[in-house]
Write a structure and sequence with these properties.
This protein has 400 residues and is an alpha+beta fold. The protein folds into two domains: 166 residues, Efflux pump adaptor protein, beta barrel domain (Elongation Factor Tu (Ef-tu), domain 3); 151 residues, Helix Hairpins (Orthogonal Bundle), CATH 1.10.287.620. It has four helices and twelve strands; from the N terminus they run H-H-E-E-E-E-H-H-E-E-E-E-E-E-E-E. The strands form two sheets. It has a six-stranded antiparallel beta barrel with strand order 1-8-11-10-9-12.
């Protein structure tokens, strides 16, 4: 009974009693449960923190993408454009050699292809010989003409001087004859009065007759010098005819020069030279092939004028302007971007352009709204780009 009462009414144990150890062992489970609760809350906080970081990592690029989309016009419908020139010849003949192959780079003035020009070379040799003959004839005729002109001018001067001298002598003889005739008449009048003798009269008459004869002879000699003067003048006129013949020879020389120039031009037309720096896209003919005037032989990419053509929807047309900044990337050059500017904005939509000019058919587009072509120029274009390569164009919106 005493043990039962003791169990029913236990007495609180003192600090030094042995039941203390039993009490400690009974409280151990209570102390282990509270230490587990803080550990579970830490894991949940870490998960919340990691989720927040992950969400932030997703929101940052999304916000950047949304900001980029709001401030840029992105066109993935873009490609590299350039002038592709099909080179042909101005003449006709047989292709002799083609010095380039597809993919070769060329410089302005490089010889690309050559047609057989042996028949033209023969024509050039004949033209050069004919021209040389005419030049020799002109040189000889010019020398003879100069010599003949100097002689004719001397003869004319002498004939002119002789004519003037004979005219002067004839005039002097005429004057002397007049004086002798007057002297005779005066003496003849005095003879009637018996003032002088008949002998003096006869002497005066003889002198008058002699002077008259001398005057007539001088006049005849002057007439002879007129004929010499006319002959000298005719010789000068004959030189004018020879000068006209020389001009004919000179005209023939110019004609021969024109013929030679034409043959030389025909020879040059047998050659195809690079009109500018570029690269060979493909060969359209092979050696031995007969070609006509204008037949294309090579397709050449002119690298001096290459640009990016981007197509944008019509509703974005008001958001760009000429000179807008552009960033261009190419799938062929991943990770690289190139700065550029809008050089020109098209005046018509793709609905007004030929189907073969568009980068893709209208049926292949995602939406049926019209597109406007934009020309983009980039600085420092990489050598890898080729006509027709696709590009992605990011155009900065005006005012953004």
């Amino acid at each position: 009974m005493a043990r039962a009462e003791a169990l029913a009414d236990p007495v609180p144990a003192r600090e030094n009693d042995e039941p203390k150890d039993q009490e400690v062992t009974l409280t151990e489970p209570a102390t282990t449960e509270p230490t587990a609760q803080p550990g579970g809350g830490g894991r949940r906080g870490f998960l919340r923190f990691a989720s927040a970081l992950l969400l932030l990592a997703l929101l940052i690029p999304v916000s950047h993408w949304m900001h980029f989309q709001a401030t840029h016009i992105v066109s993935r419908n873009a490609l590299v454009r350039s002038h592709l020139s099909q080179l042909g010849v101005r003449g006709e003949g047989i292709v002799e050699t083609i010095h380039v192959r597809a993919g070769d780079t060329v410089r302005r003035g490089d010889l690309l292809a050559q047609l057989d020009d042996r028949h033209l070379q023969a024509r050039r040799a004949a033209s050069e010989a004919a021209l040389a003959t005419l030049e020799q004839r002109i040189a000889l005729e010019s020398a003879e003409l100069r010599f003949a002109r100097r002689g004719a001018e001397v003869d004319l001067a002498q004939a002119t001087a002789e004519y003037a001298r004979m005219r002067a002598e004839a005039e002097a003889a005429r004057l002397r004859a007049e004086d002798a005739r007057a002297f005779h008449a005066a003496r003849d009048a005095l003879a009637d009065d018996g003032a002088i003798s008949r002998e003096v009269i006869r002497d005066a008459a003889a002198k008058a007759a002699t002077a008259k004869s001398m005057a007539q002879a001088a006049s005849a000699s002057a007439v002879g010098t007129v004929a010499s003067l006319q002959a000298a003048e005719l010789a000068i006129e004959a030189l004018a005819l020879r000068e006209a013949e020389l001009k004919v020879l000179q005209a023939q020389k110019r004609e021969a020069e024109a013929e030679l120039a034409q043959v030389q031009s025909d020879i040059e037309s047998m050659r195809i030279l690079a009109p500018a720096d570029g690269a060979v896209v493909r060969r359209l003919a092979q050696p031995g092939m007969a070609v006509e005037t204008g037949t294309p032989i090579l397709s050449l990419w002119l690298v001096d004028d290459t640009w990016i053509e981007a197509w944008i929807p019509e509703e974005r047309l008001g958001e760009l302007a000429q000179g807008s900044a552009v960033q261009v990337s190419f799938p062929a050059l991943p990770g690289e971007r190139f700065a550029g500017t809008v050089a020109r904005i098209g005046l018509a939509t793709d609905f007004e352009m030929p189907q073969d000019y568009l980068p893709q058919t209208r049926e292949a587009r995602m939406r049926p709204t019209p597109l406007v072509g934009v020309e983009v120029r980039i600085s420092g274009a990489p050598e890898l780009i080729r006509p027709g390569l696709s590009a992605v164009v990011d155009i900065q919106r005006e005012g953004s």
